[in-house]
């Protein structure tokens, strides 16, 4: 898969932008604050329905206007697609494919990309929510129907929390407990599916992660991913960074017990505490995945360079997994301001690692930071305008 053309209207600092991309490496160069990252942020949004920089879509709409438009021409297997989304300051966003209206959440079905940016260091050093979001975005890219499962689960958690808060405020009534039992069934059904899908994804990432880490770092530090599941023993302090779960890989340890059964048991054990807190304290929304290096948790033990290598290797492993599974070819690999953080040897190894992808988009503030093999097609950006293209 590749992007052949990107058109932006009132997106970030661009009143209007038209950018042509080629197969292979495409380098976007510009001083900090000129708008180079805005270009790849727009493409990332088409793939994930989110930004790697902000949580609010409205932040991507140019100041003083009501809407922004991202429009991209895509090509794969000889087929051309025009995908577009309108981000609205008021009301819901609108999406189209080949000029036909679709649900916004269906956009990732048409465009697959993997983006690595400096913010991704939070995958190693940040809160569990960052790692959950990473896994869930990758799940949706591989299996788009899971977008609906994740959205349904989030709604159930919100409804269940509302009921728990109501019961805490008004005193527990038999009717409320009966209703809670109904929500529990839905929570367990959806949550067990998410837990198992994440666990399968973690297993699949194992080998590509090890290969990618060695390719980037030049050494084998035994990178590994280990699920930490709240249903195996919740520690409800999300801020602790452990994700609230004991480190344990699936299949679940209790003999002949399904994920569903273990989830139900955890809910039963925490019923009183949940009523006291007014919160759902167990489920995939409180899980984590622990990143391991040299048999130790990377968070707290890995050096800055090791953390960078791990986060980058994780994204390269994701891209490798997607290219194996996809009927549309390679995902578009996007590297945002990555090379400035790497020494010469890591720059060279990264250039070699990405050379086989159908299309790679790279941003950089300094042209000299980029290995020559990746500079064949260079796009220059200044003050919200594409100022030149070098062959």
TrEMBL record:
It is found in: Cytoplasm. The keyword ATP-binding applies. One of its GO terms (molecular function) is single-stranded DNA binding. One of its GO terms (cellular component) is cytoplasm. Pfam families: SMC_N. It comes from the Bacteria. Residues 3-365 form the RecF/RecN/SMC N-terminal domain. Keywords: ATP-binding, Cytoplasm, DNA damage, DNA repair, DNA replication, DNA-binding, Nucleotide-binding, SOS response. GO terms for biological process: DNA replication; DNA synthesis involved in DNA repair; double-strand break repair; SOS response. Transmembrane segments: none annotated. ATP binds at residues 30-37. The RecF protein is involved in DNA metabolism; it is required for DNA replication and normal SOS inducibility. RecF binds preferentially to single-stranded, linear DNA. It also seems to bind ATP. Belongs to the RecF family. This is DNA replication and repair protein RecF. It comes from Glaciibacter psychrotolerans. The lineage of its organism: Bacteria, Bacillati, Actinomycetota, Actinomycetes, Micrococcales. The gene is recF.
């Amino acid at each position: 898969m590749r992007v052949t053309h990107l058109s932006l209207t009132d997106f970030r600092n661009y009143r209007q932008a038209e950018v042509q991309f080629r197969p292979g490496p495409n380098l976007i160069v510009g001083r900090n604050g000129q708008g180079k990252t805005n270009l790849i942020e727009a493409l990332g949004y088409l793939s994930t329905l989110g930004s790697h920089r902000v949580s609010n879509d409205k932040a991507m709409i140019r100041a003083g206007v009501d809407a922004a438009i991202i429009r991209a021409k895509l090509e794969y297997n000889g087929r051309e697609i025009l995908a577009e989304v309108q981000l609205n300051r008021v009301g819901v966003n609108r999406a189209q494919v080949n000029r036909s209206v679709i649900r916004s959440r269906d956009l990732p079905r048409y465009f697959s990309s993997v983006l690595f940016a400096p913010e991704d260091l939070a995958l190693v050093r940040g809160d569990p929510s960052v790692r959950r979001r990473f896994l869930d975005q990758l799940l949706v890219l591989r299996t788009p129907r899971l977008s609906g499962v994740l959205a349904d689960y989030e709604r159930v958690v919100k409804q269940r929390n509302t009921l728990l808060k109501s019961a805490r405020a008004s005193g527990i009534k038999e009717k409320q407990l009966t209703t809670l039992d109904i929500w529990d069934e839905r929570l367990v059904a959806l949550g067990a599916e998410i837990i198992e899908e994440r666990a399968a994804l973690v297993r699949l990432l194992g080998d590509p992660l090890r290969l990618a880490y060695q390719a980037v770092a030049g050494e084998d530090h035994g990178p590994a991913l280990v699920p930490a599941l709240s249903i195996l023993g919740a520690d409800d302090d999300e801020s602790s960074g452990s994700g609230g779960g004991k480190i344990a890989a699936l299949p679940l340890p209790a003999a002949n017990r399904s994920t569903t059964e273990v989830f139900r048991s955890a809910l039963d054990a925490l019923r009183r505490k949940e009523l006291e807190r007014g919160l759902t304290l167990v489920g995939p929304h409180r899980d984590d995945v622990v990143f391991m290096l040299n048999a130790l948790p990377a968070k707290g033990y890995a050096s800055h360079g090791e953390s960078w290598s791990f986060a980058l290797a994780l994204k390269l492993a994701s891209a490798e997994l997607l290219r194996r599974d996809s009927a549309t070819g390679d995902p578009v690999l996007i590297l945002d301001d990555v090379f400035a953080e790497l020494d010469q040897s890591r720059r060279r190894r990264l250039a070699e690692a990405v050379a086989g992808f159908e299309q790679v988009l790279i941003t950089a503030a300094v042209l000299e930071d980029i290995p020559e093999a990746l500079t064949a097609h260079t796009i220059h950006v200044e003050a919200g305008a594409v100022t030149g293209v070098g062959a």
